[in-house]
Each structure stands twice: as C-alpha cells, then as structure tokens.
Amino acid sequence: MPLGWAIAGIGSHADLKIAPAIPRARDSRLIAVYSRDQKRADAFAATHGAQAAYDRLDTMLADSRVDAVFVASPNHLHAPQTIQAAAAGKHVLAEKPMATSVSDAAAMIDACRKHGVTLGLGFELRFHPAHLWARQLIDRGAIGRIRLAHGQWGRGNRGEPEHLPRAGLREWWETPQLIGDASVLVGLGVHVFDLMRFLLREEPVEVIAMTDGQTARQPLEHIAAISLRMSGGAIAQVMCGRMLPDTQNDLALYGSDGRIATKETIWEARLGQAELVSATQNHSESYQYDYLANFVAELDDFHDALQHNRPPAATGNDGLQAARITAAAIKSARTAQSVTINPPKD
Ligand SMILES: NC(=O)c1ccc[n+]([C@@H]2O[C@H](COP(=O)([O-])OP(=O)(O)OC[C@H]3O[C@@H](n4cnc5c(N)ncnc54)[C@H](OP(=O)(O)O)[C@@H]3O)[C@@H](O)[C@H]2O)c1
Q1: Which residues contact 62 (CB under 8 A, 6 or more apart)?
Q2: pTM listed for this prediction
Q3: Which of 18, 44, 69, 73 has the most ligand 1 atoms within 8 A of CB, as the residue to mutate?
C-alpha cells in the first residue's frame, strides 16, 4: 500500500519542496492538504495533485486515506497540530523548529508515544551525502578526535533592507510568540545544531551565543554566533544569519589527525563538495545540484521507518534536543552568560 500523506500548512515550504518531493518519494502519494482557507487549499491541491482539500484540520485527520501528516505550519502550530494528528492515529513528520518551547516539544513526544504513532523531524541536512560521508569517516576515526567544528547557514539578497516588512500570511515570521522568540536561530541555526550532534554523536553541555537581537528594542535577531561545548570536549561553532548575500554555507571538522571540510552543503538543496585531508588520505567528492533530493530522502526514510518499525533518522528526541539548545542560546544572548545543558534523559 502506498503511504498516504497529508500536509498541514501549505505555505512556501510545502509548495516549493514538500509537495513536489512526495511524488518522487518511493510508493507515496499526496492525499490531502489543509489550509485555514478552502480556496487556498483547493488551489494548492489542484497544483500538486492532492486528492482532497480541507479547511479544517479535524476533517482532514478523519480521512482514512491519510497515514502520515507533514506539519509545515507556522512554528507555534507544530505542537498543537502534531498532538491533534497523533490523537487521530496519524504518524507525523514535523518541520523544524520542533516547537516554540521545550515543554511543547516534550508534549509532542508524549502524545505520539501515547497514541503509538511515529514522530520524525525535518532535519534534511542529515540526508546530504556529504554529511553522511563525513559521519562515516568520523566513525572510523579517519581524522582522529574532533577538537573544533564550524558550520554556517546564512542567506540573503544584495541590498536587502534590515527590516523586511512581512505582511499577511508571512507576518508570523516577525511575531516573537509565533516564531519562538528567535528568528535565524530557529530558521537556520537549529539545522546546524542538529548537524553537529549528528556528526559528532555528542551532546552540547554548554552554550554561549551572541546575536544582534534578543533585546527589548530588537527581540528577533538577524545574525547569531553560537559556541557549543560538546560532551566529548570538542567546541562547535555555529553561525547563522540573514542579509548575508555572499555567505559561504560550509562545514569544517578539525580532528587530531586530519580535517573534513565541505563547501555549500549547508543548504536545503543538494549540491557542493566535500574533502578529507589527513597524513595518509586526500580525497574529495562533489554533488550534483538537486533541489529536492534531501527532502525525497527524508520522506523515504520516514516511510522506511514506518515499514520496519524503527525510529526515523531524526526523531522527536532530536527535535527536543535542538529545542533545548535553541532555548539555551536565546537565554545566553539575552543575559550575555553561558548556559549549561544537562544531558538528555534517555
Ligand atoms: N526544513 C527546512 O529547510 C525548512 C525550510 C523552510 C521552512 N521550514 C519550516 O516550515 C514551516 C513553514 O514555513 P513556510 O515558509 O512554508 O511558512 P509560510 O509560507 O510563511 O506560512 C505557512 C502557512 O501558515 C499559515 N499561516 C500564516 N500565518 C498564520 C497564523 N498567524 N496562524 C495560523 N496559520 C498561519 C498560512 O496558511 P493558511 O492561511 O493557508 O492556513 C501560510 O501559508 C516553518 O516551521 C518553517 O520553519 C523548514
């Protein structure tokens, strides 16, 4: 039986990436979409070949053809929509950031556990082959013990004004309680936090963040630099920002015996290069541009996880850890103090 997907939140992410990726994913089909506005839902369904369009989430969740819901709504809705979908017996693949608070993220995990459904998180950087290669190299000790890591995700257009007036459907991006008290930290940085945990297989124990926001005058930041002290002793630097039109979205991992560096891999599309340099090895790989490949891989992984009763590549606990790091970064930026994080409970 093909996996029947529904999408809650049919904004630009769903339109440009998730809905087009579903037909490329193995044995999957887009059954239904939900918008607050029936006309928008109908138009989206017509564009992307969805079989049904709903203006009520509960009605969509009652559609027996829907097996899994991709939650791509504004951040403050990830928790209530996930909890509602879980109660209706649907599996959930939720977009990042998992929620606008650590307690909401934990409630999502509890709800999915209680109702016996699978919860995954949309951390597509885990599916870039450069990052998978880097992880394998680290695991087999190719660069020794990692001491320093850098990762950056920025974006921007030349001449972009500092304050982008976002009206209408995009206004939530500028509203602290709807986006989660941070802007680029939850938009971009959270992906790199997850990537550091994924590659190093370590948890951050201390966070220091400097941003140009998190003040009464400017609650939402445009630029953030975050240092994570990892449990094994490595220091991971995460940079993120908007208004950076010429940003280099690269990754570097420096170990006791060599380095792994990637170029242009920290972005939603698959592209870029990766290299391994050590005393005994010098090897590089490059990746053909494919805008959707990382999302197709994410959907395929989720489907495979359901079929084989295993956790997806990025779980609710991974989303929760990213939420804890984000909360620590916000606190650190506000107080100009370092913030410690206790290890996860399981
Ligand atoms: N993994 C990634 O790389 C990636 C990339 C981009 C975005 N995302 C995530 O995907 C999610 C959606 O992002 P997006 O850029 O697609 O969002 P968006 O286009 O700004 O909005 C999504 C939809 O939310 C609804 N909406 C807007 N304001 C609302 C409000 N105040 N209350 C309730 N609903 C509202 C609107 O749909 P209706 O009015 O039709 O209901 C809108 O079309 C976010 O969580 C974002 O972080 C992830």
Answers
A1: 88
A2: 0.97
A3: 73
Q: How far is CA 177 from CA 20, 94, 97, 157, 191, in A?
A: 30, 19, 13, 26, 20
For ligand 1, atom 21, name the residue with the nearest CA. 11
- Locate the ligand 1 atom nearest the alpha carbon of residue 36 and give its number: 41
According to CATH, the topology of domain 125-290+315-340 is Dihydrodipicolinate Reductase; domain 2 (3.30.360)
> Per-domain residue ranges for the chain?
3-123, 125-290+315-340
Structure tokens at 132: 């998978």
| pLDDT, tens only, 90-112 | 999 999 999 999 999 999 999 99
Q: How far apart are CA 332 and CA 319, in angstroms?
A: 20
- CB 248 within 8 Å of CB 155: no
Question: Would you call 174 helix, strand, or coil by DSSP?
Answer: helix
Residues 6+ apart with CB under 8 A from 261: 250, 251, 252, 253, 274, 275, 277
Whole-angstrom distance between the N-terminal and C-terminal Cα of the chain? 34
Q: What is the dihedral of CA 136, 140, 145, 148, to 10 degrees?
A: -10
* Cα separation, 343 vs 317, whole angstroms: 12
Q: How far apart are CA 20 and CA 123, in angstroms?
A: 17
What architecture (CATH level 2) is domain 3-123?
Answer: 3-Layer(aba) Sandwich (3.40)
Q: Which two tokens stand for residue 86?
A: 């879980």
- pLDDT, residue 164, reads 67
Given a cut of 70, is residue 151 above it in pLDDT?
Answer: yes
Pocket of ligand 1 (CB under 6 A): 9-14, 35-37, 40, 72-75, 77, 95-96, 122, 124, 169-170, 172-173, 178, 187, 268
